[in-house]
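Q: Got a minute? One more chain.
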Amino acid sequence: MNTASATPVGPAPVWDVINGFTSYWALSAALDLGLFDALAEEAGCGAGLDAGQLAAAVGAAGPGPVTVLAETLVALDLLDAVGDRFRLTPVAERYLVSTAPASMAALVRYSPGPPAAWPGLADTVRTGGPEPSVTADLNALYPALVGATGPTQAGVATAVAAELERRGWWPKQPTVVDLGCGSGAWATALLHARPDGTVIAVDRPDVLPLAERAAGDAGLGDRVVPVAGDYLDAVLPVASADVVVLAHVLRAEPADRARRLLTRAIELAGARGVVVVADYWRPDPPPDPPPARRHDVSAREDDGRAEDEDRGALCRAARHELLLSLTMLASTAGLGVTAAELRAWAEAAGAEVVGSFEPVPRQHVRLIRSRTPEALS
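A: Always. Here it is, folded:
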């Protein structure tokens, strides 16, 4: 290759990463200032606010700093600018206004986990786990974090209920076990679809009140049975369930615990029930070459190049999922989960993945059922 005539490699990917840090704090500052809420109050007239009006609305010293922040948000497609006025984009209106049903405003603050986890990420990679102080910070943060996931997860759970209905796996009076119920979004959404059902809601003692409060606020408190304890060994008031939910819990667990947790869910579902797993999947590792090609050097080299290219494409396509897996690594004992691991764990427990869908963007769900003839019929 003639390097002299080759196009120079630019630093854009490096700048994108550096600017990602700035972008996050621009969004955080806008939320802290109430900038999106201020624009939402003016959304009815459709004209938006100019920099002076926006500065007054958020309590800023003057229009200059607000202009820099707002123009940055325009560049990030989180605001729109028409003439001298700033307006909400559809994305901001739906996900960044604090009172919107699907608001992610709180999730922006809590989703990255403890701030102290990130400067220590290199040490976490070296040692295999985060510092105890980071784990303690996460434990303190956890109730707020799971509460912030509620609006997004409610939409996912509602779509899952519709899918179970479509497949004929959603009885009129279902028994649901939600292992890691978090905010209670799944429990309340599923019970809205089946008000005569019962949800056994399992989570840590400091988190469980969130689910109870959500069910109570929805008028469904008498349909939720709270169980405090570890997902793996909490004593449940039922021996089986029609639906077992594992929503964003496997990726935060070490592999052995995640496997055993899935096995428990499959056992609870039995021959007739279904396990619902919602998570962010890391790309599967490249397959081993067939035995006949392992001794063929040229074929092995060709396979290696193809696998490298395929894996690179898979990683780029799974950017969101990999970043969330890295978030798990930074502050938990989990490394995320691959779809291949899920399939293998399910098969070892006598079950199989029978459905896969994306009910809302970037929210992936797998449905697992027993391989017994009764279940497959």
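A: The chain is about 50% helix and 15% strand.
Q: Perfect, thanks.
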